[in-house]
Amino acid sequence: MPAAPPFLHAPGPRIRRGAVLPAALLLAWAAAHSGLVNGHLLVPVEKVALVPFLDPQGIHLWPGLAASLARMAAGFTIGAAAGLLLGLSMGLSRTADRLFGPTLHAVRQIALYAWIPLLTAWFGNGEPAKVVFIALSAFFPMVLNTQEGLRTVPAAYREVARVLTLSRWQLLRRVLLPGAMPSIAIGVQLALIYAWLATVGAEYAMGLGRGVGTLLSEGREHFRMDIVIVGVLTLALVGFAINAAFGRIFARALRWRGPAR
Amino acid sequence: MTTPGSLDLRAVGKTYAVDGRPLTVLQDIDLRIEPGEFLAIVGASGCGKSTLLRLIIGLDDGYDGDILLDGHRITGPGLERGIVFQEHRLFPWLTVEENVGIGLEATSVPAAEKRRAIREHIDLVGLSGFEKAYPYQLSGGMAQRAAIARGLVNRPEILLLDEPLGALDSLTRVHLQDELLRIWTQENVTMLLVTHDVEEAVYLADRVVVMEPRPGRIRRILPIDLPRPRNRAAPAFAAVKETIIQELRR
Asked: Considering only CB atoms, which chain B residues are within 8 Å of A166?
């Protein structure tokens, strides 16, 4: 029998190879700074690395990051939960699909950032508007992927459930949900990415309060390129970490799919 | 009075509406399957043999005539009937033992009893040691064994087999035919096999029903009086096989 379950994203050599490009860029940056470019626009590497620890403005990164993550968690939880529920109801009931489907597909054509004027008008510039915006961004990928996942569970499996006289609840729990899980996992991963982008976007566009996005916009205003770069790097690293963590979780939950997918 | 496992088909017919016009796929099927019998149905594709199985398992409602299991008319699926499909249809997210166990999901059998039944049936089909394997880790033959265990774990009175070996390579198929015979003897269950493989039908069945298409009807029912284990190379075996093939060609 085959040994340990394989992971979807095998760590190790791939990460090492993936680090080549960033390292090269870092080198190029350091080289460029030694003489070529205006010092205001391109700050030295070592200075940027120390900004979050030593700079009086830069240390705001940490409370800002904590605030951003908390905000994202709140928005993601609300949006993804609502998306999951609506996706489930639309995937399970044709009536729900007919009722919500057309509206949903119309509304999702609206570019996410076009919601900002409306949201700020309704909720102001504070926390509620940001959380609603983040929730909205997590909501759509979740609905669509959940519904799609349920819809594509093969009819052959539903027949097996009928033959085994499973109840509706057993059908849902043992057949439909596990069958839809790969698609739902994609929904969660997309929702997380969108929620993180939306968090920073919301902070940048609705300026009140702490956050990485706020830090970025202030850094830009005060012409602090070191802080801007630190902010951008933080965004990238957090996004990468979120993606990697959930990739692992889902690889484990979906190990029944086997290797080579 | 009927004994458990007897299936009675009386003037069974099935008509679908295709483009608003009625299409008769089964007509006047009269057949009685005795308890403990191994019956095979052969026929060209389109003769309605799979449709007949779907009617008996209860996946396809609305038919003419009567299908009686132990004297009761069949409406919808029930655990006294098991089925093995051509594709194994194991749930890929469940292990072998979970896939077998899901056959007992809808029953009120106590947990300990369930575990015992699952273990017994995994043993029965020769999959001991593979309880924790996922379907993607199984060969086609092993997956079909697991599907047979799932079909039998409820101890149904009749097991329906819808070309269960049709997708397997010929070596595995011959091997699993013997396994089917062993399981049939051991479990004392009525078996109804649909196949397009005449040799398989003659090798396994007590009687072979030959069907003809458009609309699906019974052409002939042949008792196979050869003693078991049957020898595929024996002249008597070849003669029966030839008779059936002639019936199918006419």
From this structure: 102, 105-106
